[in-house]
Write a structure and sequence with these properties.
The protein has one helix and ten strands. The protein is of the alpha+beta class. A five-stranded mixed β-sheet has the order 3-10-9-6-7, with no helix packed on it. A three-stranded antiparallel β-sheet has the order 4-5-8, with no helix packed on it. Keywords: Membrane, Transmembrane, Transmembrane helix. It comes from Chionis minor. This is SACA1 protein.
Length: 162
């Protein structure tokens, strides 16, 4: 296959991270490059790329909608990048990159529902605010400690001089 994939660790990451990248590797033997990260992701829509190397028009792209317990639905989009607007349910998409009729790479994306994205965004904001609060507390502690140490050193030196 072609392309790269990120290998993620979902536990044991540093700090409060829930996922962390442990390595990036080239997809060579299997055509399945796992799960991708969209190019752009907003509350309304998502842009997802297929795996390709230049020139882009060298390949044919087959997009599929994977619905659990149902038949896979082929989509009419044949471009390397597909934009999808969020629905009320999460949907999984798969893109197969084909060259001369053979699949050379395959990647999947889960497009979360609007409500799930709003929940994820609010959790992310809470985490960022918590981090900022901790960082602010550490900075204030360092500043106060620095002032106390400075004053503690300067006053004895003044008394020694006098």
């Amino acid at each position: 296959g072609i392309g790269i994939r990120e290998v993620l660790l979902t536990s044991g990451c540093p700090g409060t991270e829930t996922k962390c990248i442990i390595r990036v590797e080239e997809c060579q033997a299997p055509v399945d490059c796992g799960w991708g990260i969209p190019i752009s992701e907003g509350l309304a829509c998502v842009k997802m790329p297929c795996i390709f190397i230049p020139p882009e028009n060298r390949f044919k792209y087959v997009w599929k909608m994977l619905i659990p317990n149902k038949v896979t639905r082929m989509l009419p989009n044949d471009s390397a990048i597909m934009e999808v607007c969020r629905d009320t349910h999460s949907i999984t998409f798969q893109c197969e990159t084909q060259e001369n009729g053979n699949t050379v790479a395959s990647i999947k994306y889960t497009v979360y529902a609007k409500t799930e994205m709003q929940t994820k965004m609010s959790k992310r904001l809470e985490t960022e605010q918590s981090r900022r609060t901790k960082t602010d507390a550490i900075l204030v502690f360092c500043l106060v400690t620095g002032i106390i140490v400075t004053v503690g050193v300067i006053f004895p030196m003044i008394f020694m001089i006098l």
